[in-house]
Amino acid sequence: MVDVGQLISRISALIWVLLVTAVIGNVLHNNINGYMAPLNFTMFCAALAWFPALYGFFASFIPAMVCPVFMIPLDALAVFFTFVSAVVLAGSLGAPNCGDLHFARHGHHWIGWGAKNDVKRCREIQASTSFMWFLWVSLSFGLIFSIRSAGNLSFRRRYYPRPNMSQVA
Length: 169
Fold this sequence. Notes:
Elements: H1 4-29, H2 37-61, H3 68-93, H4 118-149
């Protein structure tokens, strides 16, 4: 049986990771000697997020693929790295008005410099920052659903009622 919450969180994660990968890939492609460290880390996190998004999507349809021992750490790593990437990207960008960029307001190593069209680059980085936060929410829900589905495979011993001697035939 398909868990609807799991499926919705995985589909939304796939959409957000696709958008982040596309937008950050475009920023990286159009780079001209710009500050790249946060963008490279964001692309790494987007590549990492593909694995739990795709695996969780297929595992929601194919019950034989469900392996909580594999899925929970993969989800946890993706949630952690996506959160760190979203914070780093937001902190590196700041809160600029992309339509009114001045070199004096931002330092030489500001993440928004480094393209033929800096306004476009700034707006793409702003969009990818918001997409990273939405991806983090989707992956967090996926982690919650993975932990919930692993409840049947807990490591504590379950005590089931045993029959009394009078019930034994």
